[in-house]
Amino acid sequence: MKNTVKLFLIAVSVVIMSSCSDYLDTKQFTSSTSDIAISSYSEAFAALVGMYDGLQGSSSRNTYYAARMIFYGDVRGDDMQASGTGMRTSPCYEMRYNDDNAPIVAWDIPYNVILRANDLIKALDAGKVTDASEEEIGELRAQALVTRALCHFDLVRIYGKPFPMDNGSSFGVPIVLEPLDKFATPSRNSVAEVYNQVIKDLKDAIDSEFLNTGKDVGFFNEWAAKALLCRVYLYKEANQEALSLAKDIIENSPYSLWTNAQYGVSGTAGVWARASIPANDEVIFELINTDTSDWGDREGIGYLMSEAGYADMVVTQMFSDLLNEDTDDVRHLIVQASTAAANITKFETNRVWCNKFRGKTGGQIPIANLPILRLSEVYLNGAEAAVKLSGANLDIAAEYVETIAKRANPATTESITSTNITLDRVLKERRKELVGEGHRFFDALRNNLTITRYTDEAAKGWHYTITEEKSRQFDRTYYRTILPIPIGEMNANPALKDQQNPGY
User: Fold this and answer.
1) Residue 248 has what DSSP assignment?
2) In what helix (H) or strand (E) does residue 231 lie, and over which residues does it extend?
3) Under 8 Å between Cβ of 89 and 312
4) What are the tens digits of pLDDT across the range 136-167?
5) Residue 160 DSSP one-character state
6) Scanning 99, 125, 196, 450, which has its CA 20 to 30 A from the CA of 9?
7) Could you read off the pLDDT of 255-304 as tens digits, one per residue?
């Protein structure tokens, strides 16, 4: 398989460092038009890394995985919240938006990345790249397919109902498989159609056998494609497929769980800081940032979560109580107590600041890698699928949950077996393990759970008053759980005229 280091060195010779991340990028290869000239392997690889750069977003407030996609999945749930009014996370937390002020970043940046992927796929399929081997071309194309799948999946999670609500029959998002010009007017496909395309892209990439089967930091390899497909199947409630993929990854991939000792290292060392201990033992795919880039514009997720940064978001008292059920759980160490006097007054000695994106060097909080797919999630995906399948699969569910729970506290006396494992227990472990990584809101909605911030003004915990009363406690029937199509898109595309989400 292609050596990623070799690819990286080739790209260095033809492009310059991006202004917003450590992925290589030029203006030419961040375009969303269909007239990009890709006629050599070096240009194709430059387009590839520009595509990965797009997954982070820009070095402004309009970001994708650098911040917004992650906190969107957290503060809209019940385990994290905006720390106060007027914060960057406040509109998502309070769910106070309509079609003319909803965050357009959730629409236009993923589609921009899709168009980058489509530009690359089109050039490769047209035979424009003549100085590369079949293997080199195949690997680039497969990575573009995985990227396109991820973006379509994110879009349908944000703008479409959870698949289980109506078996995917309601509106999803437009499927875009060609480089479209600005005058294109695609209409919305159904949620089921989007899921089918996402699954097709991922299976095509995996079945091509061109993806790297070894660890490949910062690039999609075969295991990352399988981990994403496992997640997609879980959301679709294709539980047997999700479990089969989870077992494959756990048993056959080169990844392993961090140890308890590694997980708990604090400061600028250890796995969460991506220093001293190889982070990609467990991280299957992450976006890369180092201190050689200028992704220190203070809009990254690490700065938003840190008390030493913008102090924008904290865990809820409900989550704090959940974690406090086991005082020896190592995951206490990735949630920090306040040090500023005003925050001590507000939160007392409670651990409220999620410290998973702590930065790699002293004093540079924004410089952190962004884990998108971890082996821990795969274990929990497999456990959830197994418990839903029931029967003999309950042994697997118990084994996978116990593995994560005992990594958190090897001395735990809790016995997790096929006779007592439940979906609630799986989701409880999922909450504790994946907090701050953008999962809880989506997990709750696809499992038809009620999200409760608070119901009593006298017992709000750390929540401040949410003026939209319905946003204090809701389930997936609440129309604001789905974002509206941005009004600019509705006005520019007549095909969307009658396809706005209900309630807006």
Assistant:
1) H
2) helix 222-236
3) yes
4) 999 999 999 999 999 999 999 999 999 999 99
5) S
6) 125
7) 999 999 888 776 555 688 665 555 568 999 998 876 545 444 678 898 89
Which pair of structure tokens corresponds to residue 500? 């706005």
Both tokens of residue 169?
Answer: 């029959």
Query: What H or E segment, with its residue span, contains residue 446?
Result: helix 440-446
In 3D space, the residue among 118, 123, 181, 186 whose CA is nearest the CA of residue 151 turns out to be 118
CA distance 111 to 129: 24
Cα atoms in the Cβ-side hemisphere of radius 13 Å centred on 258: 26
Q: How far is CA 4 from CA 128, 210, 365, in A?
A: 22, 13, 27
Distance of CA 220 to CAs 119, 155, 294, 430, Å? 18, 19, 23, 24
**Residues with Cβ within 8 Å of residue 313, at least 6 apart in sequence:** 71, 74, 75, 80, 81, 82, 83, 87, 89, 93, 304, 305, 354
CB-based contact 374:246 (threshold 8 Å): no
| pLDDT tens per residue, range 190-235 | 999 999 999 999 999 999 999 999 998 899 999 999 999 999 999 9
Residues whose CB falls within 8 Å of the CB of residue 367, separated by 6 or more in sequence, listed in order = 289, 290, 291, 293, 295, 296, 302, 359, 360, 361
Over residues 345-399, the pLDDT tens digits come to 999 999 999 988 877 655 566 667 889 999 999 999 999 999 999 999 999 999 9
Q: Which residue stretches of 21-166 are H helix?
A: 41-56, 68-75, 90-94, 105-125, 134-159, 163-166
Nearest to 93 by CA among 106, 78, 111: 78
Radius of gyration of the chain (CA): 22
What domains, with CATH codes, occur in the chain? Answer: 253-447 (1.25.40.900)
State the pLDDT at residue 1. Answer: 41
- Quote the tokens at residue 214: 């070894």
Backbone CA torsion sign across 108, 111, 115, 116 = positive
Strand ranges in 357-490 using DSSP code E only, listed in sequence order: 370-374, 451-452, 473-474
Residue 36 is encoded by which pair of tokens? 């990009």
Handedness of CA 454, 456, 462, 467 (dihedral sign): positive
- What is the b/e burial string over 331-353, where b = at least 16 CB atoms within 10 angstroms of the residue's CB? bbebbbebeeeebeeebeebbbb
Question: b/e string for 158-196 if b means 16 or more Cβ within 10 A?
Answer: bbbbbbebeebebbbbbbbeebbeeeeebebbbbbbbbe
**Do residues 450 and 76 lie in contact, with contact meaning Cβ atoms separated by under 8 Å?**
no
Residue 286 bridge partners (DSSP): 371
Name the band, by pLDDT with cuts 50, 70 and 90, for residue 100. confident
> How far apart are the C-alpha atoms of 470 and 443, rounded to whole Å?
20
Instruction: Please name the residues in contact with 445: beta carbons below 8 A apart, sequence gap of 6 or more.
Output: 162, 451, 475, 476, 481
d(CA 173, CA 157): 9
What does the alpha-carbon distance between residue 471 and residue 468 come to, in Å, rounded to a whole number?
6
Report the alpha-carbon distance of residue 89 to residue 82 in Å, rounded: 6
